[in-house]
Amino acid sequence: MNSSDSITDSDEASRTDPEASSSAFDNETKSTDNKDEVMKRAAAKKLIERYFYQLTDGCGNPQCDNKYCASNGEMSPLTPDEAAAKAIQLFSQEARLCEIHPNKIARKQGNIINNTNGSSNEVTCKTSQTTNESESQSNYSSKDSLKCNSAPVPTFLTEQALYDIIDECEANNSYSPLIRTLGEIFSSIENLSKSFPQEAKSPSQAYSLDDADIKALKKEEVRTLEGEKDKDEDSSADSIKSSLPLVDVPSVRRAFTALFKLKKSIFENALVNALVTLAGNLQMELPTRKERGVNDDIVNVLLIVFEIPGLCSGDLLETALPAICRAAQGLPIEVQANLARQWSEVARSSIRIILMNLQQLITYCILRAMMTLMPDFCLQDENVITSATKLMKILYYANLLAGVLESPELRCHTLSDSTDGLLIKPKNSLPSDLLADELGVHVLDCRTPYIPFSEFYHEPLSEAVEMDRDFANYKSETGIRMNPCKFSFMHYPFILTPATKTMGLYFDNRIRMYSERRISFLQAVTGLPSQPFLKLKVRRDHIIDDALVELEMISMDNPSDLKKQLVVEFEGEQGIDEGGVSKEFFQLVIEEIFNPDYAMFVIQPESQTTWFNPTSFESDAQFKLIGVVLGLAIYNNVILAVNFPMVLYRKLMGRRGSFEDLQDWNPVLYNSLKQLLDYEEPNFEDVFMLTFRISYQDVFGSTISYDLKHDGDKILVTQENKYEFVDMYADFLLNKSVEKQFSAFYRGFQMVVDESPLELLFRPEEIELLICGSKNFDFDELELSTEYDGGYSNETQIIKDFWSVVHALSMEDKRKLLQFTTGSDRVPVGGLSKLKLVVAKNGPDSDRLPTAHTCFNVLLLPEYSSKEKLKDRLVKAINYSKGFGML
């Protein structure tokens, strides 16, 4: 028997008597001896291989009557994947095997597999179409090569094995083994998922499963490869939990470090091609993975792939990474959750690097589109960008899990009404985030993320995205959740800057205003009274009384009018409100309503923040109307000069205050309680002498006592209950003591923003930015973004003098200039560059003061004859601009 026809004795026996072979195999599975297990596994692989070639090549007998043999003319041709799946199924069913006809030969698949010493063994395919043995080992046909590569024989790679292959290649000055290894391992889900295990095993140990486990596992593989949509009745019984070991991420990093010490030209093409093939396999397999708990191999694959250095450059960035992202966008929710957990636990130090790679990919796609002047380019239609964004969402939740999380019990999406016992809920609840639900985590649970939230912002994307189109996708009736073609970045707000998200909120508010206006016009056609705006007419000297009375009447009679565009008229004044008068109205209301003399709010002396007065005598209606005012400011895109602590915005978003919130609410108290928690000495009670009765002062200076527990003055604070004391103390100060006031305030706020995507788009820190504006007064940025009209330009001498004067002003006078020109001394979200200031020529030199149209941010500046005269007139104008001076 020549080498091309060599067949092992066991293979010959199984060929001549399949039933005897099957019986022998069954007997072997009963043995617990490791050697017998290895032999059993090898025999199983041989049988599967024989089924495969029987399906693809046949037995060679033209008279064969086996319906599962290619030599039977009635059998339909199968692709290699279909044949592999069918072979596994026939093995599990112990189906009939044909005897090999003399004109057919046995084949062995070429593979690279780790042995116990970490070295690699190469087995080449042999063909019957050559008579020379050496020639048959090196020059086999492409057809036979395809068949050899498609046989489902599992392989895996370890750190030591890669070291050995690299050493061997360097010693022989030939890198073919390395290239073949990378191609075979990184192109296969099965091979790569078993690579770099935390506890490295030899092949015989890795595959030593009993007969039942082999068949159950292979049955699941059959269903995957065949793409069956409907599982048979015993699916739940046969589905098993994955036995794959976790990936040893440090080992992966060391292995890649060693690999990338080589010249990239040696292996990069092979690695890129393998990853592209891997991505294609993922895209084909994922739609068939409907069973929970059978996708751990995909998680392992992605963990390893995203540890590859250099993903942000070269062909890896341009070809491999886009393919992987496109494949990963189809991950089932449970796989996304598992991947997020793994990234947060075993690969958290890679979160920032993976984020940079994904952001680099998005930037590359945007710049490529701009440089090639692609017509009708739309970010929402670019598959690579959207798939990278979806993958970034998984990383975003991994960042939350890797950070400091608080108890979900602190979430409070409903607040009890102390007056009527009703529950306050938004009218239209936002759709739940499936990934957040699967993980059981919410962004509000994260006190401190592993890396700052701001690092997820993508500036080039935020600048390039067309928010009008994005908002249209968001509001589409089919929506992103029902029609994947309608992608909206508003469902992925972590990637957008606050300024861009503010634009999305602006579109939502404006469209709702126009909707209310249209309804009003329709009512006018039918003869009903029409009021297209929310119009407030107030007296400047009685602004609080007039405003609150009118708002209370509107909120009681027709709350939907609060969704109309606000128009303010000051009695006895001629200003027409195109935005500027409203800004002044909010400024005056805030100045008075938060004045401590009203006793509705108090100033925390340590932090200078404004907080609810727990002993206020004002009614709930007053606090509700303050909430309405705050909601109207957001709704009408007006920035307010308020200074709430961060805990207020967390509470507005549905999170109860906790101990950590005391840090910016009352830093002195927080540090005192922190020292209490850090004190571990046994004389704790003697040192602190505290009980569960606390005391605080009201606005009149009177001391008020409160028992955190029943008979709190009799319960000492000890080492055992100090954490309970601190939590109850914080809960009282931030929640219980102001529950009545905050509930009314929240109810008024929700009357305006209940249908808004505010909660979807913004985190508490961004809500503060939205309400209070930025704290960065960069007037160089304002100069660069300012436009000119009426004959002025940035080269005009008066303009040069103007900016020279402005930059020399004190910070107080700079804020007055903003107040004079825009109606607000606050910096909009995104900085002063978003202000769009216009400086227009207002005639030749004269003694007139500069004037401004605050509705449109236009400064009317005469062409003064000297810089000194300009400064004198400008300073007078900004210091005498209150009241009727604001037009």
Characterise the protein shown here.
By secondary structure, the protein is an alpha/beta fold. It starts with 8 loop residues before the first helix and ends in an 8-residue tail after the last helix. The protein is globular. It has 39 helices and 16 strands. One of its GO terms (biological process) is regulation of signal transduction. It is found in: Cytoplasm; Nucleus. Keywords: Biological rhythms, Cytoplasm, Membrane, Metal-binding, Nucleus, Phosphoprotein, Proteasome, Transferase, Transmembrane, Transmembrane helix, Ubl conjugation pathway, Zinc, Zinc-finger.
Structure described in brief:
The chain is of the alpha/beta class and 887 residues long.
Low-pLDDT windows of residues: 1-32, 102-154, 200-243, 414-427, 478-482, 883-887
Structural class: alpha/beta
C-alpha Rg, in Å?
A: 36 Å
Gross morphology: globular
Number of strands: 16
Please, what is the oligomeric state?
single chain
Report strand %. Answer: 5-15%
Number of helices: 39
Average of pLDDT: 78
Strand order of the largest sheet: 13-14-16-15
Query: Helical percent range?
Result: 40-55%
Separation, N- and C-terminal Cα atoms: 105 Å
Largest sheet: 4 strands, mixed
GO molecular function: ubiquitin protein ligase activity; zinc ion binding
Region (Disordered): 1-37, 111-147
Catalytic activity: S-ubiquitinyl-[E2 ubiquitin-conjugating enzyme]-L-cysteine + [acceptor protein]-L-lysine = [E2 ubiquitin-conjugating enzyme]-L-cysteine + N(6)-ubiquitinyl-[acceptor protein]-L-lysine
Transmembrane segments: 625-649
